[in-house]
Amino acid sequence: MEVFLVSLMNGLVYGMLLFMLASGLTLIFSMMGVLNLAHASAYMLGAYFAYTISQVIGFWWALLLAPVLCGLIGAAIEMWGLRRVHRNGHVAELLFTFGLALIIEKGVQMTWGLLPVPYRVPALLDFPLFSVYGTQFPAYRAFMLLISAAMFGAIWLALTKTRVGLVIQASLTHPEMARALGHDVPRVFTLVFASGAALAGLAGVIGGNYQTTEPSMAFTMGPIVFVVVVFGGLGSLLGCFIASLLMGLIQTFAVVFDYSLADLLKQFGLVITSATPFAELLTVPLPRIGALLPYALLVLILWLRPRGLLGTRDT
Q1: Model confidence, pTM
Q2: Is the Cβ–Cβ distance between 129 and 138 less than 8 Å?
Q3: Rounded mean pLDDT of 167-179?
Q4: CA 125 to CA 143: how far, in whole Å?
Q5: Cα separations (Å) of 70 from 91, 116, 144?
Q6: Contact, 100 vs 77, CB < 8 A?
Q7: What is the DSSP letter of 130?
Q8: Alpha-carbon span 50 to 140, nearest angstrom
Q9: Where along the chain do its domains lie?
Q10: What integer is the mean pLDDT of 136-164?
Q11: Residue 294, Cβ density class (10 Å: 0-12 exposed, 13-18 middle, ≥19 buried)
Q12: Considering the chain, what is the average pLDDT of its residues?
């Protein structure tokens, strides 16, 4: 029970971190149709900006300023880069953002070095909040859950209950009509892209000291974020939220439970021997294949339901 509860809480924390990062990509990828491979780079920049700012004026200012800087960078990328590339189709966007991700990674290495930086949890939140069967749960992880839950609520309210959100949705689904009503559609696109980059930067501020702030963190988080967005369903914030929690729990529980398919079959009276077909595959322990499970689920959902878990379109 101790292992289960501790793993459950850690899985929720990791899942909500994935949601913080994937929510920005949901805005960009599902609404604008932009294949932004540099989205995880904004997450990395947010962590490094937060580290630098916290060294000077403290973590709480970094929590405010780092996402703003990432949002400004995102706005500049959309106005002076993607807006020109967009007319050439998705392949051009893919190549542009892929090259941009490499440039940002090399820029980070040249600025902050190749080694991890000592980005620490703020002292105000560096204490155990409670304990479960003797295992302490840090207060900072509860803070991460609080911030990510507040982000989910704020995004949902902004998109569904405010005039700005309605204008954004209209510009993305019926741009000609929105333009005829006097709305600046290119500016709306810039706002969406900048907001997505700012959300990724906020995830970097919160997650950089929870994990490790180092130059390969974008490459580590980038693929799993795309899995979350596609699995949850394009255009569905709720689907992104559910997929984030699911992937976080799967990856966390896969590490702590040392079982295999052979152990599961044994419960039903089926004993796997060396002569059994695919015996080596059936006896592989779960921790060795835990990192592959999200991608296996992605293939499965695309096969059974191409639009994703709660998606509203197939493209």
Answers
A1: 0.87
A2: yes
A3: 75
A4: 8
A5: 24, 20, 19
A6: yes
A7: E
A8: 16
A9: 2-259
A10: 85
A11: buried
A12: 84
pLDDT at 314 > cutoff 50? no
Taking the C-alpha atoms of residue 205 and residue 20, their distance in angstroms, rounded to an integer, is 11
Confidence of residue 185 (pLDDT cuts 50, 70, 90): confident
pLDDT at 282 over 70: no
Instruction: Tell me the HSE value of 206 on the side-chain side, using a 13 A CA sphere.
Output: 27
The CA-to-CA distance between both ends of the chain, in Å, stands at 43
At 184, is the secondary structure helix, strand, or coil? coil
Dist CA 241 CA 89 (whole Å): 29
Q: Give residue 36's pLDDT band: very low, low, confident or very high (50, 70, 90).
A: confident
Q: Which residues contact 72 (CB under 8 A, 6 or more apart)?
A: 194
| Burial state string for 87-114 with b = 16 or more CB within 10 A and e = fewer than 16 | eeeeeebeebbeebbeebbeebeeebee
Which pLDDT belongs to residue 280? Answer: 66
Spatial distance between the Cα atoms of 35 and 226, rounded to a whole number of angstroms: 10
Rounded mean pLDDT, 286-307: 84
Token reading at 179: 């333009």
C-alpha distances in angstroms, 121 versus 21, 203, 246? 19, 14, 26
Give the Cα separation of 47 and 67 in Å (integer).
9
Which pLDDT belongs to residue 130?
77
Whole-angstrom distance, CA of residue 112 vs CA of residue 106? 10
Length of the chain: 315
Core vs surface per residue 6-17: b (16+ CB within 10 A) or e: bbebbbbbbbbb
